[in-house]
Amino acid sequence: MHDFKFKNGELCCEQVKVSDVAAQVGTPFYLYSHHTLVDHFTKIEQAFAPVRPLICFAMKANDNLAVLKTMANLGAGFDVVSGGELKKALRINADPAKIVFASVGKTEEEIVAAIQAGILLFNVESLPELEEIHRIAQQLNRRPQVALRINPDVKALTHTKITTGTLKNKFGIDMRTARKILKSSARYPHIQLSGLHVHIGSQITTRAPFIKALTRVLEFLEVLRQDGIRLEYLDIGGGMGIIYKDEQPQTAKDLAGAILPYLQKTGLKIIMEPGRFIVGNAGILVSRVLYLKDNGFKKFLIVDAGMNDLIRPALYDAYHEIVPVVVTPRRKVKMDIVGPICESGDFFAKDRLFPVLKKGDLVAVMSAGAYGYVMASNYNVRGRSPEIMVKGSAFEITKQRETFEDLMRTETLPTFLAG
Ligand code: LLP
After folding, report:
1. Fewer Cβ close by (within 10 Å): the C or N end of the chain?
2. pLDDT of residue 298
3. Which of 332, 331, 307 is closest to 320 using CA atoms?
């Protein structure tokens, strides 16, 4: 459920009319509902209450400061995957003791920053990375906690580009290597090998892959127990799917019902890393119609947002519901809804039955809160769109629209070409 609803024929976010925001900030823009964020976080918290998990919001899904602060105020920690994300989390005074750091390619600079910040856990993805963290920890005279991200080799039954838990993927450590590392922990006195991490993919709509992965984890923990190895944490990653079209994903309650017994059996402290579930349906991308073009074969509704704003349809063939912001009696015909960018991949919908809108009308691309703005680019020298958050009847810009000058700030002509 979310807080984008039609009232008197107009799309509203909580108590704010989307068209009022458009009138004030121009288009395109991202709009987030504070209440939806709170609601989704609370759903996970309540469903999994029996294991009192640390919920580390996967900020790769949406790193807007207002979103992060909303999460931190609810007691969330953060799953970060870069030095930049770490700094951004610290910028809103996130508790470093609630930050976990995953990435297959952590640099020395990032490892130093994370150790110095005092994060809870490194989720380590390879033996060379473990050795690097150990070396740096020794230099800094620290002893950070590490969880090994294991690759359970299970299919997540989702889009191939967002599947991460099979041995074809670059992520995690195969179980044999992980066991070897854990058995030789004496070789790493400057790190505490204190947990396991598992994340098998994203937009997973059924419980089966989670159960499969956790079954592997339990089997592995039993092997480790026999090896005399004791751990403290199990980080089960993210991946819970949401409704974009007609998916019927498990609710937080359903998933908890299915996997709580496994989590309880581990006896470990549980960490979760949900991203999309919390923020996916808490955001929309609002755009304005520029032209309706009919080439005799096909109709195209051309809007002012492009794949540089939301790349998911181009990259994953992702479906996003699109609605006119003001309900219209206009007839519906099949059309492509596209952006202005010079690529055929620049589309939001293909062959969609949609009302024949006119220039200036507003449309909303729904479920754009996760992996929307964060994946935006400046392709075609387009400034990124602003982000706005609504709370009740108030709204504020939390990130300004990028201007041309913003884009030029870091670029100069080489001296041999200047003048
Ligand atoms: N933890 C780890 C280690 C991850 O790699 C991810 C997502 C998450 C947590 C959060 O997963 P979520 O709960 O959001 O499913 N750009 C793609 C999704 C990429 C997901 C990357 N990893 C998309 O737009 O569908």
Report:
1. C
2. 96
3. 307
Torsion of CA 12, 308, 56, 69, to 10 degrees: -50
Residue 158 has pLDDT above 80, yes or no: no
Mean pLDDT, the chain, rounded, equals: 96
Model pLDDT for residues 321-335, shown as the tens digit of each residue: 999 999 999 999 999
CA of 103: how far to CAs of 68, 83, 148, 169, 199, in Å? 20, 10, 12, 13, 12
Strand ranges of the sheet holding 4-7, from the earlier edge strand across to the other edge:
4-7, 10-13, 16-17
Note whether 16 and 286 are within 8 A (CB): no
Cα–Cα distances in angstroms (integers) from residue 186 to residues 138, 148, 235, 259, 379, in the given order: 14, 15, 23, 33, 50
What the block records as the tokens of 353 is 């039955």
Residues 230-239 have a mean pLDDT of 97
CATH architecture of 34-277: Alpha-Beta Barrel (3.20)
Catalytic residue status for 342: yes
Locus of tokens 């809103």: 92
> For 374-404, how does the pLDDT look when each residue is reduced to its tens digit (9 = 90+)?
999 999 999 999 999 999 999 999 999 999 9
Question: What ranges do the domains of the chain cover?
Answer: 4-31+280-408, 34-277
Measuring from each residue's beta carbon to the nearest atom of ligand 1, which residues come in under 6 Å?
Answer: 58, 60-61, 79, 102, 162, 164, 199, 202-203, 237-240, 273-277, 312, 316, 370-371
Ligand 1 atom closest to the Cα of residue 61 is 14
Question: Stretch 294-321: mean pLDDT, rounded?
Answer: 97
For residue 109, give the DSSP letter.
Answer: H
Percent of the chain with pLDDT over 70: 100
Closest atom of ligand 1 relative to the 202 alpha carbon: 15
